[in-house]
Amino acid sequence: MARCSVWRRPVVLPLCWKDELTTLGVRCSSSMPVVKSFNEIPGLWKNGVANLYNFWKLDGFRNLHRIMSQNFKTYGPIYREKIGYYESVNIINPEDAAIVFRAEGHYPRRLQVEPWTAYREYRNRKCGVLLKNGEDWRSNRVVLNKEVISPKMLENFVPLLDEVGQDFVARVHKKIKRSGQNKWTTDLSEELFKYALESVSLVLYGERLGLMLDYIDPEAQRFIDCITLMFKTTSPMLYIPPGLLRRIGSKVWRDHVEAWDGIFNQADRCIQNIYRQLRQDSGMPEKYPGVLASLLMLDKLSIEDIKASVAELMAGGVDTTSITLLWTLYELAKQPNLQEELRAEVAAARAESQGDLLEMLKRIPLVKGALKETLRLHPVAVSLQRYIAEDIIVQNYHIPAGTLVQLGLYAMGRDPKVFARPEQYQPSRWLKTEAHYFRSLAFGFGPRQCLGRRIAEAEMQLFLIHMLENFRVEKQRHMEVQSTFELILLPDKPILLTLKPLETSL
Ligand code: 2DC
Fold this sequence. Notes:
Blueprint: H1 15-24, E1 43-44, H2 48-57, H3 60-75, E2 78-83, E3 86-91, H4 94-102, H5 114-123, H6 134-149, H7 154-179, E4 184-187, H8 189-205, H9 218-234, H10 242-247, H11 251-280, H12 291-298, H13 303-316, H14 319-334, H15 336-353, H16 357-362, H17 365-377, E5 383-387, E6 392-394, E7 397-399, E8 404-408, H18 409-413, H19 453-470, E9 471-475, E10 483-486, E11 488-491, E12 496-501
Parallel strand pairs: 1-2, 3-8
Antiparallel strand pairs: 2-3, 4-12, 5-8, 6-7, 9-12, 10-11
Helix pairs in contact: 7-8, 7-19, 8-14, 9-11, 11-13, 12-13, 14-17, 14-19
The structure holds (3alpha,8alpha,22R)-cholest-5-ene-3,20,22-triol.
């Protein structure tokens, strides 16, 4: 059902009007379209408990992304919702996203993932920037930005990430050789988890964990398993106060605690290790020592704050990038011609940049488009959210300051009004000069965007470069994979891919 909304752009109202708006709800004018009140926004928001029950019946914990898309089809480009105790206004249009982000204020705040904060309270652990808010968030974030997300840091990260990419390729070649069939068919996810953890650890700690070897440290494998478990146990707790689940000693809460304990134990071990080394060595290191050591030497944040944010970066950098790479390989396996096009771009970039990796990364727009395209169809985060700091008007509805507004990122990526032929995986759509305004938001936006963004981007680009230069990717016919929500969006079944070495795969 299409809602009739006569007005799409925000109406900038004189202040006196705003007052009337909040008191009267509706305001009529002959020259302006009617601005409707907050309570007129369509959707189910009156009975949170009943909605939670229905959500549960629809297996909403796994289908959140599809339910959101369906809601936009039912209600139009804006709807209001209350599930359990969690109330929000949902939007889908890039132009509306721009209005929301403009109203995010000086200390942007997203939805608090309660189970994560509950764990930290329970174990008396400090929050990193992921979970901090207000001035505490800002002061930490400013320091971290320089060391983690500033483009300048890429010079340091790229050679490290390239090293891991090369090792990954060598490992695949070995697997192919061992198979005796000149190809390797496998569910790559385990390998990609290891690649991602090895990459992020090298950048954070300046040291290899050795995950590209045949026998790996069982603790590292445990860390990987704990992250998956942590995400999985978060989603069922999103709509129920974790305090309640904790009091009744529910299994999901206990598993969640166990998962975070595992994550922090491993992160603490890595951090302690570097910290000890740093205290022994005196003087400045010759080569880039990694994010953690740089932050410790910089001495602008407390050790506890550094530890908390570094642990978050480490945990946030495994499933997110590896799953995005898996989806990309899956999409490329479906389109051999596109794969060739990308391969040609990489070959040309390699030749032109003459060994300068940073230069090379500037010459692969189609590879970058492929990653954007993957994140459009398979975003890690189903939505972006902000508590707006001021009143706004979206789709001609008045939304008061303090409201939680969610942009349905998954729904937006598949909306034919936003992306022509959305079902088609077309990296070239990102090359055109046509408006990309607020359409590429997989890492969020503004000062609260993903802190790991630059690391993730470089890591994924270098991975694709190496893979394209070495292997052809194929998939089994008749394999359609969809997303399932486990806090992040994951493939709903294993993706089996076949890797063949380039020279002999004709
Ligand atoms: C999940 O309705 C759906 O980057 C909820 O690397 C709203 C929500 C809130 C916060 C989002 C979350 C969703 C998805 C996962 C995100 C998270 C914020 C950060 C986190 C997007 C959309 C993620 C994956 C971080 C995780 C770091 C952590 C492991 C230490």
